[in-house]
Amino acid sequence: MHDISLNRDVMVIHKALAAKNRKLFDDNKVFAVNIMGAVGSGKTALIELLCDKMKEVKIGVIAGDVISEVDAKRLRKKKKPVVGINTGKECHLDAHLVDHALEKLPLAGLDFLFIENVGNLICPVDFELGSHLNVVVVSVSEGDDTIEKHPAIFLTADAALINKIDIAKAVDANVDKMVADAKKINPGLQVIPVSIKKDVGVDDFIRWLKDARGKN
Q1: Parallel, antiparallel, or unpaired: how do β-strands 159-163 and 133-139 relate?
Q2: Which end of the chain has fewer CB within 10 Å, C or N?
Q3: Cβ atoms of residues 63 and 75 within 8 Å
Q4: Residue 64 domain-assigned?
Q5: Which helix (H) or strand (E) holds 61?
Q6: Is residue 115 part of a domain?
Q7: Structurally, how many domains does the chain consist of?
């Protein structure tokens, strides 16, 4: 009598699905950006502003959340193709969920796909989606020690936006410290202080984003 192992490496499966997603993006010439950050950091507001400012390109959105459609409804007001994903109990998106969402998007007609991950600075780190870039949004209102407390997500990111710099003094946050912490964790990280609400620094991010797409 022989034992039969039913064990499968879940992360290997996820990586394979992520590679499948990436090929689909590349085949359709869609530049996919995974936008991560805690609840309230400004992820949805960032995508809204990108939709307003990047009028010369065609944008699609995947909006991930645990149970609600609140963010997806907000983004649909921008008249862009939006697919909402509810993860249930999971605190992150994964390649499988993104794969199913892609079936509902007109990929062949898009230039950029913004994937809003679930609000969390820990869980999304281990799950590749197939995106070309990983971007983290962190708000000064989360505390200027937030970056040094969550190094893993900044290690895997290509860019970090330090948001709400217009209220930094009011919440006693040191923006320079946050920039330095991010650079210490990941010297190659593109770090851009912004105020999404006031539209400060977002043009710098857009220029970097377009440049990154051109190099892809």
Answers
A1: parallel
A2: N
A3: yes
A4: yes
A5: strand 59-65
A6: yes
A7: 1
What is the residue-level pLDDT of the chain in tens, covering all 216 positions? 555 544 456 667 778 899 999 999 999 999 999 999 999 999 999 999 999 999 999 999 999 886 668 889 999 999 999 999 887 777 888 899 999 999 999 999 999 999 999 889 998 888 899 999 999 999 999 999 999 999 999 999 999 999 999 999 999 999 999 999 999 999 999 999 999 999 999 999 999 999 999 987
Residues 31 and 213: beta-carbon distance below 8 Å: yes
> Are the beta carbons of 190 and 165 closer than 8 angstroms?
no
Sign of CA dihedral 87, 47, 206, 111: positive
Q: How far apart are CA 193 and CA 7, in angstroms?
A: 45
Residues in the chain: 216
The range of the structural domain enclosing residue 201 comes to 29-215
Q: Please give the structure tokens belonging to residue 7.
A: 């064990």
